Amino acid sequence: MQMEKLVSLCRRRGFMFQSSEIYGGLNGFWDYGPLGVNLKRNIKNAWWHDMVTAHDELTAPAGAPTPYEMTGLDCTIIMHPQVWKCSGHYDLFHDLMVDCRQSNRRYRHDQVRGRWVEAKGQRIFVATVVETSEEVDDVTRRALKFFNLRAKNADDLAWDGDFVSLETIDDMSQVLGPDAKELGTLTEPREFNLMFKTIVGAMGSERDAAFLRPETAQGIFVNFKNVLDSTRVRVPFGIAQIGKSFRNEITPRNFTFRSREFEQMEIEFFCHPDSSQGWYKFWRDRRMRWYTELGLAGERLILREHGEEERSHYSRGTSDVEYAFPFLPKGEYGELEGIAHRGDFDLRSHMEGKLDENSPGLEVQLGEDGKPKYRGSGRDLTYRDDLSGEKYVPHVIEPSAGADRATLAFLCEAYTEDEVPDEKGKLQTRTVMKLHPRIAPIKAAVFPLVKKDGMPEIARDIYRAIKQQMPAFYDEKGAVGRRYRRQDEAGTPYCITVDGDTLKDNTVTIRDRDTLEQWRVKVDDCVSEISQRVK
Ligand code: GAP
To answer: Which residues in 517-531 are b (16+ Cβ under 10 Å) and which e?
Structure first.
Protein backbone atom coordinates (compact mmCIF):
# COMPACT_ATOMS: atom_id res chain seq x y z
CA MET A 1 0.00 0.00 0.00
CA GLN A 2 1.25 3.46 -0.80
CA MET A 3 1.15 5.82 2.16
CA GLU A 4 -0.02 8.71 -0.03
CA LYS A 5 -3.23 6.83 -0.82
CA LEU A 6 -4.03 6.33 2.86
CA VAL A 7 -3.20 9.95 3.74
CA SER A 8 -5.48 11.13 0.95
CA LEU A 9 -8.31 8.82 2.04
CA CYS A 10 -7.93 9.97 5.66
CA ARG A 11 -8.37 13.58 4.62
CA ARG A 12 -11.09 12.99 2.01
CA ARG A 13 -13.25 10.82 4.27
CA GLY A 14 -12.63 12.74 7.50
CA PHE A 15 -10.36 10.47 9.50
CA MET A 16 -7.58 13.01 9.99
CA PHE A 17 -6.79 16.64 9.12
CA GLN A 18 -3.71 18.72 9.69
CA SER A 19 -4.22 21.01 12.67
CA SER A 20 -5.00 24.65 11.80
CA GLU A 21 -5.05 23.69 8.13
CA ILE A 22 -6.70 26.92 6.93
CA TYR A 23 -3.65 28.80 8.27
CA GLY A 24 -1.21 26.50 6.55
CA GLY A 25 -1.12 23.84 9.29
CA LEU A 26 1.16 23.42 12.27
CA ASN A 27 3.88 20.83 11.90
CA GLY A 28 3.51 17.87 14.26
CA PHE A 29 -0.12 18.53 15.24
CA TRP A 30 -3.13 16.61 13.89
CA ASP A 31 -6.90 16.78 14.28
CA TYR A 32 -9.18 13.76 14.12
CA GLY A 33 -12.20 14.26 11.87
CA PRO A 34 -15.74 12.88 12.19
CA LEU A 35 -14.67 9.30 11.39
CA GLY A 36 -11.26 9.52 13.07
CA VAL A 37 -12.63 10.68 16.40
CA ASN A 38 -14.82 7.57 16.63
CA LEU A 39 -12.01 5.27 15.50
CA LYS A 40 -9.52 6.60 18.05
CA ARG A 41 -12.13 6.66 20.82
CA ASN A 42 -13.06 3.03 20.04
CA ILE A 43 -9.37 2.04 20.29
CA LYS A 44 -8.97 3.81 23.63
CA ASN A 45 -12.25 2.34 24.90
CA ALA A 46 -11.20 -1.16 23.78
CA TRP A 47 -7.89 -0.73 25.65
CA TRP A 48 -9.59 0.53 28.83
CA HIS A 49 -12.25 -2.17 28.64
CA ASP A 50 -9.80 -5.02 28.01
CA MET A 51 -7.08 -3.88 30.44
CA VAL A 52 -9.15 -2.33 33.26
CA THR A 53 -12.93 -2.67 33.46
CA ALA A 54 -13.38 -6.17 32.02
CA HIS A 55 -10.31 -7.52 33.78
CA ASP A 56 -11.24 -10.37 36.13
CA GLU A 57 -9.20 -9.86 39.31
CA LEU A 58 -10.46 -13.12 40.80
CA THR A 59 -8.63 -15.51 38.46
CA ALA A 60 -5.12 -15.49 37.04
CA PRO A 61 -5.30 -15.09 33.26
CA ALA A 62 -3.22 -17.42 31.08
CA GLY A 63 0.48 -16.75 31.64
CA ALA A 64 0.01 -14.59 34.77
CA PRO A 65 1.84 -15.68 37.94
CA THR A 66 -1.26 -14.91 40.12
CA PRO A 67 -4.56 -13.01 39.92
CA TYR A 68 -4.10 -9.23 39.96
CA GLU A 69 -6.14 -6.05 40.30
CA MET A 70 -6.44 -3.10 37.92
CA THR A 71 -7.53 0.46 38.60
CA GLY A 72 -7.27 3.84 36.85
CA LEU A 73 -6.30 7.49 37.14
CA ASP A 74 -6.73 10.71 35.20
CA CYS A 75 -3.93 13.11 36.15
CA THR A 76 -3.13 16.67 35.10
CA ILE A 77 -0.95 17.55 32.14
CA ILE A 78 0.99 20.17 34.11
CA MET A 79 2.57 18.82 37.28
CA HIS A 80 4.99 20.12 39.91
CA PRO A 81 8.32 20.84 38.12
CA GLN A 82 10.12 18.70 40.69
CA VAL A 83 8.39 15.66 39.20
CA TRP A 84 10.44 16.05 36.02
CA LYS A 85 13.68 16.61 37.89
CA CYS A 86 13.23 13.43 39.89
CA SER A 87 11.99 11.43 36.89
CA GLY A 88 15.13 12.37 34.95
CA HIS A 89 13.28 14.19 32.15
CA TYR A 90 14.63 17.61 33.13
CA ASP A 91 18.24 16.53 32.60
CA LEU A 92 18.01 13.62 30.23
CA PHE A 93 14.97 13.90 27.99
CA HIS A 94 16.69 15.31 24.96
CA ASP A 95 17.54 14.58 21.36
CA LEU A 96 20.72 15.58 19.58
CA MET A 97 20.03 18.16 16.90
CA VAL A 98 22.02 20.02 14.30
CA ASP A 99 21.29 23.53 13.02
CA CYS A 100 21.93 24.85 9.54
CA ARG A 101 23.55 28.29 9.65
CA GLN A 102 22.44 28.99 6.08
CA SER A 103 18.78 27.86 6.03
CA ASN A 104 18.19 28.38 9.78
CA ARG A 105 16.56 24.94 9.84
CA ARG A 106 17.01 22.44 12.66
CA TYR A 107 17.21 18.67 12.22
CA ARG A 108 17.38 15.63 14.48
CA HIS A 109 20.92 14.30 14.21
CA ASP A 110 19.82 10.68 13.86
CA GLN A 111 17.25 11.51 11.19
CA VAL A 112 19.61 13.13 8.69
CA ARG A 113 20.91 10.64 6.15
CA GLY A 114 23.09 11.08 3.16
CA ARG A 115 25.52 9.69 0.61
CA TRP A 116 29.12 10.38 -0.30
CA VAL A 117 29.66 11.50 -3.88
CA GLU A 118 32.68 12.63 -5.89
CA ALA A 119 32.79 14.86 -8.96
CA LYS A 120 35.24 17.35 -10.45
CA GLY A 121 37.89 16.12 -8.00
CA GLN A 122 35.87 16.98 -4.88
CA ARG A 123 34.26 14.50 -2.46
CA ILE A 124 31.22 15.66 -0.45
CA PHE A 125 28.47 14.19 1.73
CA VAL A 126 25.00 15.15 0.45
CA ALA A 127 22.55 15.09 3.37
CA THR A 128 18.77 14.78 3.18
CA VAL A 129 15.72 14.49 5.40
CA VAL A 130 13.15 13.66 2.71
CA GLU A 131 11.21 10.38 2.85
CA THR A 132 13.18 7.25 2.03
CA SER A 133 11.32 6.67 -1.23
CA GLU A 134 12.42 10.10 -2.53
CA GLU A 135 15.87 10.48 -1.02
CA VAL A 136 17.77 9.19 -4.08
CA ASP A 137 16.12 11.82 -6.31
CA ASP A 138 16.72 14.52 -3.71
CA VAL A 139 20.46 13.93 -3.24
CA THR A 140 21.01 13.45 -7.00
CA ARG A 141 19.27 16.74 -7.82
CA ARG A 142 21.22 18.63 -5.16
CA ALA A 143 24.58 17.05 -6.01
CA LEU A 144 24.08 18.02 -9.69
CA LYS A 145 23.29 21.57 -8.63
CA PHE A 146 26.27 21.76 -6.28
CA PHE A 147 28.71 20.58 -8.95
CA ASN A 148 27.00 22.68 -11.59
CA LEU A 149 26.19 19.67 -13.75
CA ARG A 150 23.17 19.03 -16.00
CA ALA A 151 20.82 16.13 -15.43
CA LYS A 152 22.16 14.43 -18.59
CA ASN A 153 25.62 14.39 -16.94
CA ALA A 154 24.41 12.48 -13.88
CA ASP A 155 26.94 9.75 -14.74
CA ASP A 156 29.74 12.16 -13.78
CA LEU A 157 28.64 11.77 -10.15
CA ALA A 158 30.62 8.91 -8.58
CA TRP A 159 28.51 7.75 -5.61
CA ASP A 160 30.43 6.01 -2.86
CA GLY A 161 28.39 3.52 -0.83
CA ASP A 162 24.74 3.56 0.22
CA PHE A 163 22.86 6.02 2.42
CA VAL A 164 24.30 6.36 5.92
CA SER A 165 23.28 8.42 8.94
CA LEU A 166 24.86 11.83 9.59
CA GLU A 167 25.86 10.30 12.95
CA THR A 168 28.64 8.46 11.09
CA ILE A 169 30.22 11.73 9.86
CA ASP A 170 33.03 13.28 11.91
CA ASP A 171 33.95 16.22 9.71
CA MET A 172 30.96 18.53 9.13
CA SER A 173 32.95 20.73 6.71
CA GLN A 174 32.34 18.22 3.89
CA VAL A 175 28.58 18.01 4.48
CA LEU A 176 26.03 19.66 2.21
CA GLY A 177 23.09 20.22 4.63
CA PRO A 178 19.56 19.13 3.60
CA ASP A 179 18.52 22.69 2.67
CA ALA A 180 21.96 24.28 2.13
CA LYS A 181 23.70 25.43 -1.00
CA GLU A 182 27.22 25.46 0.48
CA LEU A 183 29.29 22.94 2.42
CA GLY A 184 29.88 23.05 6.16
CA THR A 185 26.80 24.98 7.24
CA LEU A 186 25.63 22.37 9.77
CA THR A 187 26.62 22.83 13.42
CA GLU A 188 28.02 20.08 15.61
CA PRO A 189 25.18 18.11 17.29
CA ARG A 190 23.73 19.72 20.43
CA GLU A 191 21.30 18.54 23.08
CA PHE A 192 17.73 19.83 22.86
CA ASN A 193 15.23 19.12 25.67
CA LEU A 194 11.94 17.84 24.29
CA MET A 195 9.67 19.12 27.07
CA PHE A 196 7.36 22.04 26.25
CA LYS A 197 7.83 24.82 28.77
CA THR A 198 5.04 27.07 30.00
CA ILE A 199 4.50 29.62 32.76
CA VAL A 200 2.01 29.06 35.55
CA GLY A 201 0.36 32.15 37.09
CA ALA A 202 0.48 35.84 36.29
CA MET A 203 4.03 36.70 37.39
CA GLY A 204 5.62 35.21 34.30
CA SER A 205 9.05 34.69 35.81
CA GLU A 206 11.38 31.74 35.27
CA ARG A 207 10.57 30.64 38.83
CA ASP A 208 7.01 29.94 37.63
CA ALA A 209 8.15 27.75 34.74
CA ALA A 210 6.42 24.40 34.38
CA PHE A 211 6.29 21.70 31.71
CA LEU A 212 3.63 19.92 29.70
CA ARG A 213 4.00 16.24 30.58
CA PRO A 214 6.05 14.22 28.07
CA GLU A 215 4.46 10.98 29.37
CA THR A 216 1.44 10.07 31.47
CA ALA A 217 3.45 7.61 33.58
CA GLN A 218 4.73 10.08 36.17
CA GLY A 219 1.20 11.02 37.26
CA ILE A 220 0.75 7.39 38.21
CA PHE A 221 4.00 7.12 40.18
CA VAL A 222 3.39 10.25 42.22
CA ASN A 223 -0.14 9.02 43.07
CA PHE A 224 1.00 5.51 44.03
CA LYS A 225 0.48 6.13 47.75
CA ASN A 226 -2.84 7.93 47.19
CA VAL A 227 -4.20 4.93 45.32
CA LEU A 228 -2.98 2.52 48.00
CA ASP A 229 -4.49 4.64 50.78
CA SER A 230 -7.83 5.30 49.09
CA THR A 231 -8.58 1.80 47.76
CA ARG A 232 -8.12 -1.74 48.98
CA VAL A 233 -5.76 -2.75 46.16
CA ARG A 234 -2.90 -5.04 47.09
CA VAL A 235 0.30 -5.80 45.19
CA PRO A 236 0.27 -7.08 42.47
CA PHE A 237 -1.90 -4.44 40.87
CA GLY A 238 -1.83 -2.04 37.94
CA ILE A 239 -2.84 1.59 37.49
CA ALA A 240 -3.90 2.63 34.00
CA GLN A 241 -4.14 6.05 32.46
CA ILE A 242 -5.04 7.44 29.03
CA GLY A 243 -4.13 11.02 28.25
CA LYS A 244 -2.35 13.61 26.18
CA SER A 245 1.42 13.90 26.22
CA PHE A 246 3.58 16.52 24.58
CA ARG A 247 7.07 16.35 23.11
CA ASN A 248 8.70 19.12 21.16
CA GLU A 249 9.99 16.69 18.53
CA ILE A 250 12.66 18.30 16.37
CA THR A 251 11.44 16.68 13.18
CA PRO A 252 7.87 15.43 13.46
CA ARG A 253 7.19 13.19 10.50
CA ASN A 254 5.40 10.27 8.93
CA PHE A 255 1.85 11.50 9.34
CA THR A 256 0.83 11.09 13.01
CA PHE A 257 3.64 8.63 13.82
CA ARG A 258 5.87 11.28 15.38
CA SER A 259 3.68 14.14 16.59
CA ARG A 260 4.28 16.90 19.09
CA GLU A 261 0.92 16.34 20.81
CA PHE A 262 -0.25 12.75 21.12
CA GLU A 263 -2.10 10.41 23.41
CA GLN A 264 -0.66 7.60 25.49
CA MET A 265 -2.32 4.57 27.07
CA GLU A 266 -0.03 3.55 29.93
CA ILE A 267 -0.11 0.99 32.71
CA GLU A 268 2.24 0.98 35.68
CA PHE A 269 2.04 -2.50 37.15
CA PHE A 270 3.38 -2.86 40.71
CA CYS A 271 4.64 -6.27 41.80
CA HIS A 272 6.99 -8.04 44.22
CA PRO A 273 10.64 -7.98 43.02
CA ASP A 274 10.83 -11.79 43.18
CA SER A 275 7.99 -12.31 40.69
CA SER A 276 8.75 -9.30 38.50
CA GLN A 277 10.33 -11.29 35.64
CA GLY A 278 7.21 -13.47 35.42
CA TRP A 279 5.03 -10.34 35.27
CA TYR A 280 7.27 -8.78 32.65
CA LYS A 281 6.80 -11.82 30.41
CA PHE A 282 3.06 -11.85 31.08
CA TRP A 283 2.58 -8.20 30.10
CA ARG A 284 4.81 -8.50 27.02
CA ASP A 285 2.71 -11.36 25.67
CA ARG A 286 -0.63 -9.94 26.81
CA ARG A 287 -0.02 -6.64 25.06
CA MET A 288 1.15 -8.27 21.84
CA ARG A 289 -2.00 -10.40 21.84
CA TRP A 290 -4.20 -7.32 22.26
CA TYR A 291 -3.08 -5.93 18.91
CA THR A 292 -3.51 -9.23 17.11
CA GLU A 293 -7.01 -9.67 18.57
CA LEU A 294 -7.98 -6.29 17.11
CA GLY A 295 -6.76 -7.10 13.63
CA LEU A 296 -3.01 -6.50 13.45
CA ALA A 297 -2.32 -10.19 13.00
CA GLY A 298 0.24 -11.06 10.38
CA GLU A 299 3.88 -10.58 9.60
CA ARG A 300 3.73 -6.78 9.78
CA LEU A 301 3.49 -6.98 13.60
CA ILE A 302 6.43 -8.16 15.68
CA LEU A 303 7.49 -8.31 19.32
CA ARG A 304 11.15 -7.34 19.64
CA GLU A 305 13.16 -7.92 22.80
CA HIS A 306 15.82 -5.25 23.33
CA GLY A 307 19.44 -6.31 23.68
CA GLU A 308 21.23 -5.31 26.88
CA GLU A 309 23.05 -2.44 25.16
CA GLU A 310 19.75 -0.88 24.04
CA ARG A 311 18.13 -0.90 27.49
CA SER A 312 18.10 1.94 30.04
CA HIS A 313 20.48 1.29 32.92
CA TYR A 314 17.59 0.64 35.32
CA SER A 315 15.67 -1.63 32.93
CA ARG A 316 15.74 -5.35 33.59
CA GLY A 317 13.96 -6.16 30.34
CA THR A 318 12.33 -4.19 27.53
CA SER A 319 10.34 -5.34 24.54
CA ASP A 320 8.67 -3.31 21.81
CA VAL A 321 5.55 -4.17 19.88
CA GLU A 322 6.47 -2.95 16.41
CA TYR A 323 4.65 -2.57 13.11
CA ALA A 324 6.01 -2.43 9.57
CA PHE A 325 4.48 0.92 8.64
CA PRO A 326 4.35 1.44 4.87
CA PHE A 327 6.37 4.69 5.10
CA LEU A 328 9.38 2.83 6.53
CA PRO A 329 12.07 1.21 4.39
CA LYS A 330 11.49 -2.48 3.71
CA GLY A 331 12.45 -4.61 6.71
CA GLU A 332 12.15 -1.74 9.22
CA TYR A 333 9.52 -1.51 11.95
CA GLY A 334 8.13 1.39 14.00
CA GLU A 335 7.35 1.20 17.73
CA LEU A 336 3.69 0.96 18.77
CA GLU A 337 4.31 0.19 22.40
CA GLY A 338 7.17 -0.45 24.78
CA ILE A 339 6.89 -2.93 27.64
CA ALA A 340 9.61 -2.21 30.19
CA HIS A 341 10.68 -3.77 33.46
CA ARG A 342 11.67 -0.61 35.33
CA GLY A 343 12.68 -2.18 38.64
CA ASP A 344 12.04 0.22 41.55
CA PHE A 345 13.70 3.16 39.76
CA ASP A 346 10.68 5.47 39.58
CA LEU A 347 9.21 5.02 43.06
CA ARG A 348 12.68 5.26 44.57
CA SER A 349 13.47 8.45 42.60
CA HIS A 350 10.30 10.16 43.83
CA MET A 351 11.05 9.01 47.34
CA GLU A 352 14.78 9.71 47.63
CA GLY A 353 15.66 12.10 44.85
CA LYS A 354 17.12 12.18 41.42
CA LEU A 355 19.30 9.16 40.77
CA ASP A 356 22.54 9.08 38.91
CA GLU A 357 21.68 8.16 35.36
CA ASN A 358 25.02 6.46 34.87
CA SER A 359 24.77 4.42 38.00
CA PRO A 360 24.36 0.71 37.45
CA GLY A 361 22.67 0.45 40.84
CA LEU A 362 20.36 2.87 42.51
CA GLU A 363 22.73 5.33 44.13
CA VAL A 364 21.49 8.81 44.78
CA GLN A 365 23.36 11.38 42.71
CA LEU A 366 24.96 13.88 45.02
CA GLY A 367 25.26 17.59 44.27
CA GLU A 368 28.29 19.70 45.22
CA ASP A 369 26.90 20.13 48.74
CA GLY A 370 26.85 16.38 49.27
CA LYS A 371 23.04 16.23 49.03
CA PRO A 372 21.05 14.61 46.22
CA LYS A 373 21.03 16.89 43.16
CA TYR A 374 17.23 16.95 43.20
CA ARG A 375 15.56 16.06 46.45
CA GLY A 376 12.68 13.60 46.18
CA SER A 377 9.32 14.01 47.88
CA GLY A 378 10.67 12.49 51.08
CA ARG A 379 7.41 10.49 51.26
CA ASP A 380 7.55 6.83 52.12
CA LEU A 381 6.60 5.08 48.87
CA THR A 382 7.29 1.60 50.15
CA TYR A 383 4.58 -1.05 50.30
CA ARG A 384 3.76 -3.11 53.38
CA ASP A 385 2.16 -6.47 52.75
CA ASP A 386 -0.58 -6.75 55.36
CA LEU A 387 -0.50 -10.57 55.29
CA SER A 388 3.24 -11.27 55.39
CA GLY A 389 4.28 -8.01 57.06
CA GLU A 390 7.05 -7.61 54.45
CA LYS A 391 7.96 -4.01 53.51
CA TYR A 392 9.49 -3.28 50.11
CA VAL A 393 9.57 -0.89 47.16
CA PRO A 394 7.53 -2.67 44.46
CA HIS A 395 9.02 -3.30 41.05
CA VAL A 396 7.24 -1.84 38.05
CA ILE A 397 6.33 -3.31 34.67
CA GLU A 398 5.28 -0.57 32.29
CA PRO A 399 3.31 -1.33 29.12
CA SER A 400 3.29 2.09 27.41
CA ALA A 401 1.30 2.45 24.20
CA GLY A 402 0.54 5.36 21.87
CA ALA A 403 -3.13 5.78 20.93
CA ASP A 404 -2.25 7.71 17.77
CA ARG A 405 0.33 5.19 16.59
CA ALA A 406 -2.12 2.35 17.24
CA THR A 407 -4.78 4.24 15.25
CA LEU A 408 -2.32 4.76 12.40
CA ALA A 409 -1.31 1.09 12.40
CA PHE A 410 -4.96 -0.06 12.34
CA LEU A 411 -5.62 2.33 9.44
CA CYS A 412 -2.56 1.07 7.50
CA GLU A 413 -3.51 -2.56 8.08
CA ALA A 414 -7.15 -1.93 7.12
CA TYR A 415 -6.44 -0.21 3.79
CA THR A 416 -7.26 -2.68 1.02
CA GLU A 417 -7.90 -2.46 -2.69
CA ASP A 418 -9.78 -5.33 -4.27
CA GLU A 419 -11.93 -5.96 -7.31
CA VAL A 420 -15.67 -6.41 -7.06
CA PRO A 421 -18.36 -6.70 -9.76
CA ASP A 422 -20.57 -3.64 -10.21
CA GLU A 423 -24.34 -3.81 -10.86
CA LYS A 424 -23.64 -4.83 -14.48
CA GLY A 425 -21.18 -7.52 -13.43
CA LYS A 426 -18.10 -5.55 -14.55
CA LEU A 427 -15.09 -5.77 -12.20
CA GLN A 428 -14.31 -2.48 -10.48
CA THR A 429 -11.48 -1.64 -8.09
CA ARG A 430 -12.83 -0.72 -4.69
CA THR A 431 -11.03 0.77 -1.72
CA VAL A 432 -12.13 -0.78 1.53
CA MET A 433 -11.00 -0.14 5.10
CA LYS A 434 -11.13 -3.58 6.71
CA LEU A 435 -11.22 -2.29 10.28
CA HIS A 436 -12.10 -4.73 13.05
CA PRO A 437 -15.84 -4.24 13.78
CA ARG A 438 -15.01 -3.34 17.41
CA ILE A 439 -13.07 -0.26 16.36
CA ALA A 440 -14.92 0.66 13.14
CA PRO A 441 -16.23 4.26 13.47
CA ILE A 442 -19.67 3.36 12.07
CA LYS A 443 -21.02 -0.13 12.75
CA ALA A 444 -23.92 -0.20 10.29
CA ALA A 445 -25.32 1.92 7.46
CA VAL A 446 -28.98 1.77 6.50
CA PHE A 447 -30.22 2.46 2.94
CA PRO A 448 -33.63 2.46 1.31
CA LEU A 449 -33.08 1.02 -2.19
CA VAL A 450 -35.15 3.82 -3.66
CA LYS A 451 -36.63 6.99 -2.21
CA LYS A 452 -40.28 5.91 -2.59
CA ASP A 453 -42.87 3.20 -1.84
CA GLY A 454 -42.44 3.64 1.93
CA MET A 455 -38.84 2.33 1.89
CA PRO A 456 -37.26 5.46 3.44
CA GLU A 457 -39.73 5.32 6.36
CA ILE A 458 -38.84 1.70 7.20
CA ALA A 459 -35.11 2.39 6.74
CA ARG A 460 -35.24 5.43 9.04
CA ASP A 461 -36.95 3.39 11.77
CA ILE A 462 -34.23 0.71 11.55
CA TYR A 463 -31.56 3.43 11.60
CA ARG A 464 -33.04 5.05 14.72
CA ALA A 465 -33.24 1.69 16.51
CA ILE A 466 -29.59 0.82 15.71
CA LYS A 467 -28.43 4.30 16.73
CA GLN A 468 -29.61 3.70 20.27
CA GLN A 469 -27.03 0.90 20.55
CA MET A 470 -24.10 1.94 18.35
CA PRO A 471 -22.96 4.51 15.76
CA ALA A 472 -24.98 4.13 12.54
CA PHE A 473 -25.39 6.05 9.29
CA TYR A 474 -28.43 6.69 7.11
CA ASP A 475 -28.04 7.33 3.38
CA GLU A 476 -30.69 7.55 0.69
CA LYS A 477 -28.76 9.57 -1.91
CA GLY A 478 -27.49 8.20 -5.23
CA ALA A 479 -27.07 4.70 -6.63
CA VAL A 480 -26.94 1.98 -3.99
CA GLY A 481 -23.59 0.72 -5.37
CA ARG A 482 -22.05 4.11 -4.74
CA ARG A 483 -23.49 4.18 -1.23
CA TYR A 484 -21.83 0.80 -0.54
CA ARG A 485 -18.47 2.16 -1.79
CA ARG A 486 -18.64 5.17 0.52
CA GLN A 487 -19.27 2.89 3.50
CA ASP A 488 -16.46 0.55 2.39
CA GLU A 489 -14.06 3.50 2.53
CA ALA A 490 -15.36 4.48 5.97
CA GLY A 491 -14.77 0.91 7.20
CA THR A 492 -18.46 0.25 8.01
CA PRO A 493 -18.72 -3.53 8.49
CA TYR A 494 -22.43 -3.93 7.67
CA CYS A 495 -24.89 -2.25 5.29
CA ILE A 496 -28.62 -2.87 5.62
CA THR A 497 -30.82 -2.31 2.57
CA VAL A 498 -34.58 -1.95 2.57
CA ASP A 499 -35.90 -3.09 -0.84
CA GLY A 500 -39.01 -4.27 -2.64
CA ASP A 501 -39.05 -7.59 -0.76
CA THR A 502 -39.11 -5.75 2.57
CA LEU A 503 -42.58 -4.49 1.69
CA LYS A 504 -43.74 -8.07 1.08
CA ASP A 505 -42.03 -10.14 3.81
CA ASN A 506 -40.69 -7.59 6.31
CA THR A 507 -37.05 -8.65 5.77
CA VAL A 508 -33.97 -6.61 4.79
CA THR A 509 -30.64 -7.43 3.17
CA ILE A 510 -27.47 -7.26 5.28
CA ARG A 511 -24.20 -7.00 3.35
CA ASP A 512 -20.82 -7.93 4.83
CA ARG A 513 -18.11 -5.40 3.95
CA ASP A 514 -15.27 -7.93 3.62
CA THR A 515 -16.88 -11.04 2.13
CA LEU A 516 -19.62 -9.14 0.21
CA GLU A 517 -21.93 -11.91 1.34
CA GLN A 518 -25.58 -10.84 1.53
CA TRP A 519 -28.37 -12.43 3.57
CA ARG A 520 -31.85 -11.49 4.70
CA VAL A 521 -33.10 -11.01 8.25
CA LYS A 522 -36.41 -9.88 9.73
CA VAL A 523 -36.61 -6.13 10.29
CA ASP A 524 -37.22 -6.75 14.00
CA ASP A 525 -34.01 -8.83 14.27
CA CYS A 526 -31.74 -6.22 12.63
CA VAL A 527 -30.44 -4.60 15.82
CA SER A 528 -29.63 -7.87 17.61
CA GLU A 529 -28.00 -9.33 14.46
CA ILE A 530 -25.67 -6.33 14.06
CA SER A 531 -24.98 -6.07 17.81
CA GLN A 532 -23.87 -9.67 17.94
CA ARG A 533 -21.60 -9.35 14.95
CA VAL A 534 -19.78 -6.18 16.03
CA LYS A 535 -19.01 -7.41 19.55
N1 GAP B 1 6.47 6.10 29.89
C2 GAP B 1 7.26 5.50 28.89
C3 GAP B 1 7.20 6.18 27.61
O4 GAP B 1 6.64 7.27 27.48
P5 GAP B 1 7.97 6.01 25.12
O6 GAP B 1 8.53 4.84 24.38
O7 GAP B 1 8.73 7.28 25.08
O8 GAP B 1 7.79 5.50 26.61
C9 GAP B 1 5.53 5.25 24.69
O10 GAP B 1 6.50 6.25 24.62
C11 GAP B 1 4.66 5.26 23.44
O12 GAP B 1 4.13 6.56 23.21
C13 GAP B 1 5.44 4.91 22.16
O14 GAP B 1 5.55 3.52 21.98
C15 GAP B 1 4.54 5.54 21.10
O16 GAP B 1 3.47 4.69 20.78
C17 GAP B 1 4.00 6.77 21.81
N18 GAP B 1 4.77 7.97 21.40
C19 GAP B 1 5.95 8.38 21.92
N20 GAP B 1 6.35 9.51 21.29
C21 GAP B 1 5.42 9.80 20.36
C22 GAP B 1 5.28 10.83 19.38
N23 GAP B 1 6.16 11.81 19.27
N24 GAP B 1 4.20 10.80 18.57
C25 GAP B 1 3.27 9.82 18.69
N26 GAP B 1 3.36 8.83 19.59
C27 GAP B 1 4.41 8.80 20.42
So the answer is: eeeeeebeebbebbe
Kindly give the number of the ligand 1 atom that is closest to the alpha carbon of 320: 14
Measured between alpha carbons, how far is 291 from 301 in angstroms, rounded to an integer? 9
**264 Cα to the center of ligand 1, angstroms:** 7
Determine which residue's CA is closest to atom 8 belonging to ligand 1: 400
- Measured at the alpha carbon of residue 508, what is the angle toward residues 504 and 509, in degrees to the nearest 5? 130
Query: Tell me: the pLDDT tens digits for 42-70?
Result: 999 999 999 999 999 999 999 999 999 99
Pocket test for ligand 1, best of 335, 336, 410 (most atoms within 8 A of CB): 335
Contact 322 CB / ligand 1 (< 6 Å): no
Residue 417 has pLDDT above 50, yes or no: yes
Written as one letter, the residue type at 266 is E
Residue type, 403: A
Asked if 29 and 20 count as a contact pair (C-beta separation under 8 A), the reply is: yes
Residue 268 in contact with ligand 1 by CB distance below 6 A: no
Bridge partners (DSSP) listed for residue 368: none
Residue 25 has a pLDDT of 95
Residue ranges and CATH numbers for the domains of the chain are 37-93+195-410 (3.30.930.10), 96-192 (no CATH), 426-534 (3.40.50.800)
Residue 335 CB less than 6 A away from ligand 1: yes
pTM (two decimals): 0.89
Segment 324-343 shows an average pLDDT of 94
Q: How far is the CA of 190 from the centre of ligand 1 (A)?
A: 22
Per residue in 370-414, pLDDT (tens digit) is: 666 778 888 999 999 999 999 999 999 999 999 999 999 999 999
| Rounded Cα–Cα distance for residues 515 and 416 (Å) | 13
Q: How many whole angstroms separate alpha carbon 226 and alpha carbon 533?
A: 41
- Tell me if 193 CB under 6 Å of ligand 1: no
Whether 361 has a pLDDT exceeding 80, the answer reads no
Residue 336 in contact with ligand 1 by CB distance below 6 A: yes
Is residue 110 within 6 Å of ligand 1 at its C-beta? no
Question: Does residue 402's CB lie within 6 angstroms of at least one atom of ligand 1?
Answer: yes
pLDDT tens digits for 246-285?
A: 999 988 889 999 999 999 999 999 999 999 999 999 999 9
Contacts of 424 (CB under 8 A, 6+ apart): none
By alpha-carbon position, which residue is closest to atom 16 of ligand 1? 402
- SS3 assignment, position 107: strand
**Dihedral pair phi/psi, residue 151, rounded to 5°:** -55, -35
Cα of 530 vs centre of ligand 1, distance in Å, is: 35
* Ligand 1 atom closest to Cα of residue 259: 24
Using only C-alpha atoms, the chain has a radius of gyration, in whole angstroms, of 28
